[in-house]
Design a protein that fits this description.
Chain B: InterPro entries: Ntn_hydrolases_N, Pept_T1A_subB, Proteasome_bsu_CS, Proteasome_sua/b, Proteasome_suB-type. Chain B: It catalyses: Cleavage of peptide bonds with very broad specificity. Chain B: One of its GO terms (cellular component) is proteasome core complex, beta-subunit complex. Chain B: This is Proteasome subunit beta. Chain B: Keywords: Cytoplasm, Hydrolase, Nucleus, Protease, Proteasome, Threonine protease, Zymogen. The complex is a heterodimer of chains A (about 240) and B (about 230). Chain A is α+β, with helices and mostly antiparallel strands. Helices cover about 35% and strands about 30% of the residues of chain A. In chain A, the strands form two sheets. In chain A, strands 1, 4, 5, 6, 7, 8, 9 and 10 form an eight-stranded antiparallel sheet that branches. A five-stranded antiparallel sheet of chain A has the order 11-2-3-12-13, with helices on one face. Chain B is an alpha+beta fold and about 230 residues long. Chain B has five helices and 13 strands. In chain B, strands 1, 4, 5, 6, 7, 8, 9 and 10 form an eight-stranded antiparallel sheet that branches. In chain B, strands 11-2-3-12-13 form a five-stranded antiparallel sheet, with helices on one face. In chain B, helix 1 crosses helix 2. Chain B is globular, with a radius of gyration of 20 Å. The relative contact order of chain B is 0.19. Classes of the chains: A alpha+beta (about 240), B alpha+beta (about 230). The interface between A and B is medium-sized, with 22 and 17 residues.
Chain lengths: ~240, ~230
């Protein structure tokens, strides 16, 4: 007579999942990243929030990091997976430096590496739960691309992740043009970030804008955007139709 | 209402870590529950990793115990090899390694706090999933839901040791008032350059909150103390 350990329904599901190693759902997540090519390189914007479900739990998370000399990586999605990706890239950059051959990884190479990593994890049903934005400048060539958690990878003049896909990209399609100045680029990104602040529940009003040019990476200090609430229609929206919204 | 005594032991919990000018204060409640039954009403959720680094445990009691046991073991060897006390950052990263690589199986949120000579007092939050976040103060466990607003208002930079400990005790006590999964006593651990101090605050040492009454020995004491007609409307 065999003795079986009683498992209730929940544990049966959990045990099956525990046997096959796979990330099932994200816990601490970052929201949109928005990035554009401009005259001197790439501008990227993100807020500093780490959400835990619907709670805005962490408000000081840097979701954009410099990679080597020529690249800037922004991530949305699970923060622990982003931290792991940064470790992989650290090793990649270290080995690149150890060659000591005067060569260094450019944004194209880093983007390609990330695409391979993300796609291979997707094939094993154990994705890194992130959408990554990779921008950079090397030898005068500006590069901007993104990779999703299922390994979809492409380059473009402007990219956005998460909610940014729906809210920021239409603005960018209309208003982006080649050779934007730094000031115009920042204003354009801020326009997108303000809309995200109004309409994305997981957005917080504390953002950073990062710039990468041939000279290198600079990430701005955290700052907040002013928001506008003084539309006449906002004051008494239900006057004349009590109970409506 | 079935008690489900076979439900996994979970520390509903409220855990807190706060930095102050010179060190850190860690705090926690003392309730461990098995379903609706309180399996241990005086647990110690603040566990030592090294002489100068402690960890607050929340979530599954078993998972958090085994993670902290492994890390204590690794840190012991690390300290021998290094020849000096381990840093808080290294301790946090070891916890992260286990939490991240076993994210599918573990259900524990941890707060690592301690003091080392390089960075002083530091607090690292390691929630589900294995993210590491260095913070001036951190809270975790089911009771922390009730404290986000409280800390937004009450936390200040550069508190003294006494202010920091009072803040931690107040916060845990407020969380216990509203979170059914937290309860018992408030334990605190203060870590700084001078060493480690453990404190213990039973319920009767804490201030009373809304709808809480002064504890009595018996109704009879109230009846005898009060004047005539204590039971009249």
């Amino acid at each position: 007579m065999t003795f079986t350990i009683p498992i209730d329904n929940g544990d049966a599901v959990k045990n099956a999942e525990a046997d096959s190693q796979r990330t099932l759902y994200p816990y601490v997540t970052g929201t949109s990243i928005v990035a554009i090519k401009y005259k001197d390189g790439v501008l990227m914007a993100s807020d500093m929030g780490g959400s835990y479900g619907s709670t805005l739990r962490y408000k000081n998370i840097e979701r954009m990091k410099a990679i080597g000399k020529h690249s800037l990586l922004g991530a949305s999605g699970e923060i622990s997976d982003f931290q792991e990706i940064l470790r992989y890239l650290d090793e990649l950059v270290l080995n690149d430096n150890m060659w000591d051959d005067g060569n260094s990884l450019g944004p194209k190479e880093v983007h390609n590496y990330l695409t391979r990593v993300m796609y291979n994890r997707r094939n094993k049903f154990n994705p890194l739960w992130n959408t990554l934005v990779l921008g950079g400048v090397k030898n005068g060539e500006t590069y901007l691309g993104m990779v999703s958690m299922i390994g979809v990878s492409f380059e473009d003049n402007h990219v956005a992740t998460g909610f940014g896909n729906h809210l920021a990209r239409p603005i960018l399609r209309d208003e982006w043009h080649a050779d934007l100045s730094f000031e115009d680029g920042v204003k354009l990104l801020e326009k997108c970030m303000r809309v995200l602040l109004y309409r994305d529940r997981s957005a917080i009003n504390k953002l950073q804008i990062a710039k990468i040019t041939e000279e290198g990476v600079t990430v701005s200090q955290p700052y907040s955007l002013k928001t506008f609430w003084e539309f006449k229609a906002f004051h008494n929206p239900t006057a004349g139709a009590e109970g409506s919204w | 209402m079935d008690l489900n005594l076979d439900a996994p032991h979970s520390m509903g919990t409220t855990i807190i870590g706060v930095t102050y000018n010179g060190g850190v204060v860690l705090g926690a409640d003392s309730r461990t529950s098995t379903g609706m039954y309180v399996a241990n009403r005086a647990s110690d959720k603040i566990t030592q990793l090294t002489d100068n680094v402690y960890v607050c445990r929340s979530g599954s009691a078993a998972d958090s115990q085994v993670v902290s046991d492994y890390v204590r073991y690794f840190l012991h060897q690390h300290t021998i090899q290094l020849g000096q006390p381990a840093t808080v950052k290294v301790s946090a990263n070891l916890i992260r390694m286990l939490a991240y690589n076993n994210k599918n199986m573990l259900q524990t949120g941890l707060i690592v706090g301690g003091w080392d000579k390089y960075e002083g007092g530091k607090i690292y939050g390691i929630p589900l999933g294995g993210t590491v976040v260095e913070q001036p103060f951190a809270s975790g466990g089911s009771g922390s839901s009730y404290l986000y607003g409280f800390f937004d208002q009450a936390w200040k930079e550069n508190m003294t040791k006494e202010e920091a400990e009072q803040l931690v005790v107040k916060a845990v006590s407020l969380a216990i008032a509203r979170d059914g999964a937290s309860g018992g006593v408030v334990r605190t651990v203060i870590i700084n350059s001078e060493g480690v101090t453990r404190n213990f605050y039973p319920g009767d040492k804490l201030q009373l909150w809304h709808e809480e009454l002064e504890p009595q020995n018996s109704l009879l004491d109230i009846l005898n103390a009060a004047g005539p007609e204590p039971m009249a409307m």
